Amino acid sequence: MSARNATQGFSPARVIAVLVKEFIQMRRDRFTFSIMVMVPTMQLLLFGFAINSDPRALPTAVHIADEGRYARSILAALRNSDYFDLRATAATPADAERMLNDGDVAFVITIPTDFTRDIVRGASPQLLLEADATDPAAASNAVAAFNMLTENALSDDLVGPLGKRKAPPAFTAVVHRLYNPDGITHYNIVPGLIGVILTMTMVMVTAMAMTRERERGTFENLLAMPVHPFEVMLGKIIPYIVVGYVQVTLVLLGARYIFHVPMLGSLLLLGSAIGVFIAANLALGFTFSTIARNQLQAMQMTVFFLLPSILLSGFMFPFRGMPHWAQAISEILPNTHFQRVVRGILLKGNGFAEIWPNIWPLLLFLGAIGTLAMLRYRRTLD
Amino acid sequence: MNNATPGTAFAIDVRGLKKRFGKKIAVDGVDIQVPEGEVWGFLGPNGSGKTTTIRMLCGLLRPDAGEGTCIGYDVLREPEKIKREVGYMTQKFSYWEDLSIRENLDFVARVYGLDNRKQRVQDTLKRLGLSERQNQLAGELSGGWKQRMALAACMLHEPRLLLLDEPTAGVDPQARRDFWEEIHLLSREGLTVLVTTHYMDEAERCDKIVYISAGRVVTRGTVREVIEQSGLVTFVIGGPDVRRFIPQLEGAPGVEHVAFFGALLHVSGYDRNLLSAALAPLKNISGLEISETAPSLEDVFIDLQRPRRQAA
């Protein structure tokens, strides 16, 4: 019939049809929309302010069996370092052990009897630091600081009899880290958040968007219309790409003006890399939606995918610390590659050549999953 | 059985359609030939395969076996072409409840790539009396208005064939009547319609009916033909409190089924003599009026739904 557009192939007009519909529905669904704005804001504040993998002022008890001047120097040095909060004195070793056991303190420092005398004699006495290592991440930096501190404190004291009269040395914990010389956690966490937030919302909304059509019965109608699966997918995905960029902008603004994260690389390059990453996640969400029978299942699949994306991607824990099998799994996850890209661009000022080794795996993922989504989207109800 | 006169063009012409889901055979060799411009009723109990047949006709399901055409396109090879020229109204309301009437129609018009979209949507809204409600969300509409909107949406692209799956379920009598007037109007304009229903009065509004049971066509034809083919004999008993006779009549030889409607007891069977014998004890009771009548479509359908009988 004349009224009908006769083309059988790809039609941008039909993509726009789906796109317009999705935008209207998104606008009506205030709840989902506010969640998508709230998620990046909440995570930014939680991860940026609340989570700190280099904790300071850890509660510490001291057991002092020697009142000599070197012992006092050590204590002064520890007090000046902000890693240790010397809040308790243990009368006996048993007392100290109890405090550690009860979790009242994270560390016990024991200064043995005749500590000062043994140093003067050159007998090299042992200074004991007992750490509650149940959270190794929390303790490790403090332990490193402890070694450094005590060494400095003693070397200054041992210069000569007049050394003690000099101005007190500035005791600082020197922890050497490249790209983040101050060891500020949120330099690492905040850019990484972009990857986590995008994985979470992009996979979820697309997984839900398609399953919702099926659950409400509108899917049958969509199938009965002459619209190609690829057109449906594009039309459904594009609005969420826009949402994704809104989220990224929120996080980047927060990173810049709240957390003062350095941005050394090109934001344009970052923006392009983010585009690839968003598309990969949307394709995955679309694939989930072709498998899930209802929105609950779609949600469960999203969480199933989200956990390794947070835990194994290098966002939370160092990638190199993981066993090989875990590294192999995380190499498949788009977020792993994206973490390297976003941190590389922002913190190290990487250019295209440096990030390419992590861009092509994203493209490969996008191509493979996108094809799978197309194959799984059936044009009939069988 | 083929009701078509030679030379008639068929909007639907399929033979031996089969569809199974796992072990269950949903449709088991259905033949349907609907001439262009006619309105056919598609009847049968729940789960008899009506929806599955309709989905195969409009390209939503691929038949396991069988062949034929729908508006001239092969049902096996050209489902995408069929989709463009068929209007399909699903049993459950399947438009977007978070879109307004107008937004739904706009979406449909865009997907079909219709020219003069605004004008077309405007005209369709007007034709179905939806203009004033066009900005209301579809989810907020009552059953009758939803059905009207769905009809508007599935005829927006000027299809040549309408497949309507229980369009009037849960709709009040006035809305049903309006709906059927619209159907007949469309039919006069040359549109072919295949409509499933459970309502007898709607079946009687169709040019012909096809009745299927357990995936097979049991009977077809005009209402009169279907009644005649049934071979059913029906007596009606009128009088005070006639329902009390139901138990004794139901067990009697020759009585196929007893139904009470229109304040009358309908007693049907195939053997007039046996039926008369069964009714003999009631003839002496004063106040009862017993007479033979032409079986109604409802009598025939109740009989067809009995598992024992398969083919006429």
Give a short summary of the structure.
The complex is a heterodimer of chains A (382) and B (312). With 382 residues, chain A is mostly helical. Chain A is built from 14 helices and four strands.
Helix content of chain B: 25-40%
The value of Rg of chain B in angstroms is 22 Å
- Helix and strand composition category of chain A: mainly alpha
Average pLDDT of chain B, rounded to a whole number, is: 89
Task: Provide the spatial order of strands within the biggest beta sheet of chain B.
Answer: 6-7-8-3-9-10
Strand content of chain B: 25-35%
Number of strands of chain A: 4
General form of chain B = globular
Residue windows where pLDDT falls under 50 for at least 5 positions of chain B: 1-6
**H-E order of chain B:** EEEHEEHEHHHEHEHEEHEHEEHEH
- Which structural class is indicated by helix and strand composition of chain B? alpha/beta
Q: How can the largest sheet of chain B be summarized?
A: 6 strands, mixed
What profile does the largest beta sheet of chain A have? 4 strands, mixed
Q: What strand line-up does the widest sheet of chain A have?
A: 2-1-3-4
- Spans of chain A of at least 5 consecutive residues whose pLDDT stays below 50 are 1-7, 161-181
Largest Cβ-defined interface: A-B, 33 and 36 residues
Q: Compute the number of helices of chain A.
A: 14
